[in-house]
Amino acid sequence: MQTQMQTSSSPVVNKGWRVWWKMTRPHTLTASFVPVLLGTALALYDTDIHYGLFVAMLIASLLIQIATNLFNEYYDYVRGLDNEESVGIGGTIVRDGFKPKTVLMLALGLYGMSILIGVYICMNSSWWLAVVGLIAMGIGYLYTGGPMPIAYTPFGEIMAGFVMGMLIILISFFIQTGNVTAFSILLSIPIFFLVGAILLANNIRDLDGDKEFGRKTVAILLGRQKAIYLLAAMFSVSYLFVLLLILLGIASPWLLIVVLSAPKAIKAIKGFIGKTMPIQMIPAMKATAQTNTFFGLLLSCGLLIGTIV
């Protein structure tokens, strides 16, 4: 910890906008905007879209995701997980000379902004969403904060998939329609798995380092090879679930357009196979996030086409 503190006080190499942007961990932001788009597209089956609520929900979700990433940045530093040799876009505090307090205050400030936006959303929908939103924000903080961070347990993928996948879809749908339907729940399940896959990919890359610091992630408990199998299974379930909904007549055949994103999922799996060095797995991590992005956008397009045709 002493070494960490000395390193963080070194001169800042670059405080340009690229460093600030990198600190938001942009490849993870797909986990916030894709569910909002999908939940809103789902609502088109039942009502006209309130674009003010759509934009508000989109901004609030992005702010909460960025704040969660900043909390991650701060607490990884406090617990000594980051150093100047850390691979990836984390470790801004030790590499770029940002003061830890600045990162923490920025995260809290973004939470404050999301709360203000949340007030607008509640005023135009339901105040019960305030409770749901606060729970989601609490989970975001406790992912790396608190005495028992979720990131140190095998439940990280489940919590990320539930909050940043399923819950955001259902909230986005609810603020437009005033209810939650069985179809909206079913269609949120593939995104639940894909958002969880983003975190699993990150944990596969960081497996060796996380093990040294006592984490008990799914990747560590399963081992690298079985964790890659699990990642492939999560991709497969997402695609097969959409196919099942179509075959059962629950969803429009236009949703089959999601198969166009499959090459990204295949690239992600191939990118992990046989790799042991974290830097070698960065392309696979990016492909995992891109799978969620393209899958969600294509699913939304399928829904939009289904409302027209």
Low-confidence stretches: 1-14
Structural class: mainly alpha
Order of helices and strands: HHHHHHHHHHHHHH
Largest sheet: none
Radius of gyration from CA coordinates:
19 Å
User: Count the helices. How many?
Assistant: 14
Helix fraction, binned, reads over 70%
Count the E strands: 0
Spatial separation of the terminal alpha carbons: 60 Å
Question: How would you describe what is shown here?
Answer:
- The longest helix is centred in the first third of the chain and has 28 residues, at 51-78.
- Helices cover 71% and strands 0% of the residues.
- It is built from 14 helices and no strands.
Secondary-structure blueprint of this entry?
Blueprint: H1 2-8, H2 17-23, H3 30-43, H4 51-78, H5 92-96, H6 100-123, H7 128-142, H8 156-177, H9 182-205, H10 207-212, H11 218-222, H12 224-247, H13 262-272, H14 282-308
Helix pairs in contact: 3-4, 3-8, 3-9, 3-14, 4-6, 4-8, 6-7, 7-8, 8-9, 9-12, 9-14, 12-13, 13-14
What brief labels describe this structure?
disordered N terminus, 14 helices, mainly alpha, 0% strand, single chain, 309 residues
